[in-house]
Write a structure and sequence with these properties.
441 residues; mainly alpha; Fumarase C, Chain B, domain 1; Fumarase C, Chain A, domain 2; two-stranded antiparallel ribbon; two-stranded parallel sheet; 18 helices; 6 strands; binds arginine
Length: 441
């Protein structure tokens, strides 16, 4: 029973916020005359002492005391005697754990927020470095149109910027004080919830006691945000793995972020990227875990809720380290631009440009699409590139094809022409980078 019932192995991480919450609570109790000022001071002092004892490893966490709330209170009473028994006046472990979760998440999400910011800054730096270097842009992992490396990187900037904003938004809904909700219905004791809201630095107060002890949507919201963010990281990681392969050879990841093989001496494996891609599974799993834990629970508190810790802590820890290490790896990766440019000749990358050039000469787009399709087929049959087609062979391809229909075909020219807002032209990539910098500032 004890082993199943206890949450101390996980929620011991709440010790600091639990003590902060208790200090605010007892301060308010003193101000309200519910305990004397002397008693409040003694309890505060006792709590500070417990904090030190925990930090000095002088407290034994045991399943016998079930969770962090019981552990702190029990040790408090042991340290300061009977006066400690007054701490729990006008509250319940139900509002206490709701408070701890919110305080803890506020701090943790603040730190993850900073890690995502660091990643965004690294992306900006790299995008700037490679803003005009050209690589192949893919759809269906097939050669599509040339883009700049900076442009490709700035696509990720947008994704992680939204992830950052999701965390910011989640923090808004975390920032509500549930303390004083009691077990579920409020309390008969003359507490002042607005005062603890102020003491604990919350911007808002929860409106309904029953909701305050039942609500896990802020946890679910973070678990969703984490799942989306690590999905983005996983896609970026997958590209790293592809780019790092011998077939592509696009990037050189610093040795510090790769591992070797115990048997094959030539190996330089992109383990970080693979691990992040793999860890995406557990972060998705944590979201499903909590959605499932919550789905059938009647109001108000149920012990099922205790299960939130494993899922929450795991997603917090996993997301944080993945964002942090990925940013470092990206910062220490070079794009092998010479190698990358060798691939540019291969995939008929200028095909769309020819069709759009024809459009400018009043050829309807569908017709242009067909003519260029024939050009590609002709090149494939004759093992040549689009730029190798001779004018004398045009009639074989289409009777409508004339020399003025073919624009300059280099990848550089293709990139330079894409000046539409948000396009890959260097001028627009520069604009995107500037906007990104302004956002970060
Ligand atoms: N350890 C519990 C949890 O995490 C604290 C709340 C316990 N409340 C109760 N009524 N048993 O949910």
């Amino acid at each position: 029973m004890e082993e199943l019932n206890a949450s101390i192995d996980l929620d011991r991480r709440y010790y600091d916020v639990d003590i902060k919450g208790s200090i605010a609570h007892v301060t308010m109790l003193g101000e309200q005359g519910i305990v004397t000022e002397e008693e409040a001071a003694a309890i505060r002092e006792g709590l500070e002492k417990i904090r030190k004892m925990i930090e000095n490893d002088e407290i034994e966490f045991s399943t016998r005391l079930e969770d962090i709330h019981m552990t702190v209170e029990t040790y408090l009473i042991k340290e300061i005697g009977d006066v400690g028994k007054k701490l729990h006046t006008g509250r319940s472990r139900n509002d206490q754990v709701a408070l701890d979760t919110r305080l803890f998440m506020k701090k943790e999400l603040g730190e993850i927020y900073e890690e995502i910011r660091t990643l965004l800054n690294v992306i900006l730096k790299k995008a700037e470095e490679y803003k005009s270097e050209i690589m192949i842009g893919f759809t269906h992992l097939q050669h599509a149109q040339p883009v700049t490396i900076g442009f490709h990187l700035m696509a990720y900037f947008q994704m992680f910027k939204r992830d950052l904003e999701r965390i910011e938004d989640c923090l808004k809904r975390i920032d509500y004080n549930p303390l004083g909700a009691g077990a579920l219905a409020g309390t008969t004791v003359n507490i002042n919830r607005h005062r603890t809201t102020e003491l604990l630095g919350f911007s808002n107060i929860t409106e309904n006691a029953m909701d305050s002890v039942s609500d896990k949507d802020f946890v679910l919201e973070f678990l969703s945000d984490a799942a989306i963010c690590i999905m983005h990281l996983s896609r970026f990681s997958e590209e790293f793995i592809i780019w790092n392969s011998q077939e592509f050879g696009y990037i050189d990841i610093d040795d510090a972020y790769c591992t070797g093989s115990s048997i094959m001496p030539q190996k330089k494996n992109p383990d970080i990227a693979e691990l992040i891609r793999g860890k995406t599974g557990r972060v998705y799993g944590n979201l499903m875990t909590m959605l499932t834990v919550m789905k059938g629970t009647p109001l108000a508190y149920n012990k099922d809720f205790q299960e939130d810790k494993a899922a929450l802590f795991d997603s917090l820890d996993t997301l944080r380290i993945c964002v942090k290490v990925f940013a470092k790896m990206l910062e220490n990766t070079e794009f092998k631009t010479e190698e990358i440019s060798k691939h540019l000749g291969k995939g008929f990358l200028a095909a769309t440009d020819i069709a759009e050039h024809m459009v400018k000469q009043n050829v309807p787009f569908r017709e242009a699409h067909e003519i260029v399709g024939n050009m590609v087929k002709y090149c494939e049959n004759n093992n040549m590139g689009l730029e190798d087609i001779k004018e004398e062979n045009y009639p074989e391809i289409s009777e409508k094809l004339t020399a003025n229909m073919i624009p300059e075909l280099s990848a550089r020219a293709c990139v330079d022409r894409r000046v539409s807002y948000g396009g890959t032209a260097v001028s627009d990539v520069e604009r995107q980078i500037e906007a990104g910098k302004k956002y970060m500032a």
